[in-house]
Amino acid sequence: MGDVLKALGFTLDVRCPALGQSLPATLEGHSAVVVFGGPMSANDDHLDFIRQELDWIAIALASDKPYLGICLGAQLLARTLGAAVVSHPAGQREIGYYPIVPTPVGQELLPSPLMVYQWHQEGFTLPTGSHLLATGSLFPHQAFRYGRRAYGLQFHPEITATMVNHWTTEGADQLTCPGAQARNYQISQHRLYSPAVEDWLRQFLAEWMGVTANAKAMGGQYLPTHSSSTTQSTAQSTVQSTTKDHY
Predict the structure, then answer these.
(1) Which among 34, 60, 153, 156 counts the fewest CB atoms within 10 Å?
(2) What's the Cα-to-Cα distance from 9 to each of 112, 114, 223, rounded to whole Å?
(3) 101/123 Cα distance (integer angstroms)
(4) How far apart are CA 241 and CA 16, in angstroms?
(5) pLDDT digit string (tens) for 18-77?
(6) Are 234 and 30 in contact (CB under 8 A)?
(7) What backbone phi and psi angles, to 5 degrees, belong to 164?
(8) What angle do CA 31, 32, 36 make, to 5 degrees?
(9) CB 208 within 8 A of CB 10
(10) Which CA distances in Å does 210 have to 39, 119, 213?
(11) Helix %, strand %, coil % of the chain (to 5)
């Protein structure tokens, strides 16, 4: 994902609150925020950085800058907006490639069904005032929009072959859980479906950031955060927030 944003003319400001890295007090000088996933729960209030990210997401939303939450980042967004983050009632997980289907309003985001990579055991209720954009059979809330530019995606469009290999190796103990696909099957599915997801991600990020083909020369920063979670933002900079590894 970072390579796509850099190709669009943005620089990256990557923060990892789980490792004690601070988040910016304001988004002045940043163009957008991406909050990635992690192995922890959005309900883990005993983790200082989870509480920190929940508080900070409210600041990011108030800035009216584009926000993108992926997996845990979407769950943190949902919780910030008053929704609940809950496990599947039958203990199911989604680990591997699963289909998502656009809702009528979601066809602006996703013109047709798409096979996407998942790794999660919790989902979220739909925040009041948001629009459901994509649904799935096990976890019905796969993508939503709040306001004009805040998006939550339960799935992982940023997944790469290297990440699939790493997650299925380090998280091998989870591959026996209900809803988890075998490692070799995930690898073969990635070869099959990743080109379509990569094409979708490039188009989505360009539209989300308001970048046209003629605007690629614009400078800027994007802030990604990894909650494991990483936050990224863009100046043009993007903050990315991350939380370490996902599994």
Answers:
(1) 156
(2) 28, 27, 13
(3) 16
(4) 5
(5) 999 999 999 999 999 999 999 999 999 999 999 999 999 999 999 999 999 999 999 999
(6) yes
(7) -60, -45
(8) 150
(9) no
(10) 31, 29, 10
(11) 35, 25, 40
Strand stretches in 103-236, DSSP E = 114-120, 122-124, 131-135, 143-146, 150-153, 221-227, 229-233
Distance between start and end Cα atoms, the chain: 19
Rounded alpha-carbon distances, angstroms, from residue 22 to 18, 55, 112: 9, 13, 39
State the CB neighbour count (10 A cutoff) for residue 181. 18
Q: How far is CA 99 from CA 34, 88, 155, 197, in A?
A: 23, 17, 10, 11
pLDDT tens column, 95-154: 999 999 999 999 989 999 999 999 999 999 999 999 999 999 999 999 999 999 999 999
Side-chain-side CA neighbours of residue 179 (13 Å): 19
Alpha-carbon distance 95 to 93, whole Å?
Answer: 6
**Cα angle for residues 205, 146, 66 (degrees, 5° grid):** 35
Phi, psi of 212 (to 5 degrees): -105, 175
Amino acid identity of residue 87, one-letter, is S
Query: How far is it, in rounded angstroms, from Cα 67 to Cα 88?
Result: 26
- How far is it, in rounded angstroms, from Cα 11 to Cα 2? 9
How many CA atoms lie within 13 Å of 153's alpha carbon, on the beta-carbon side? 26
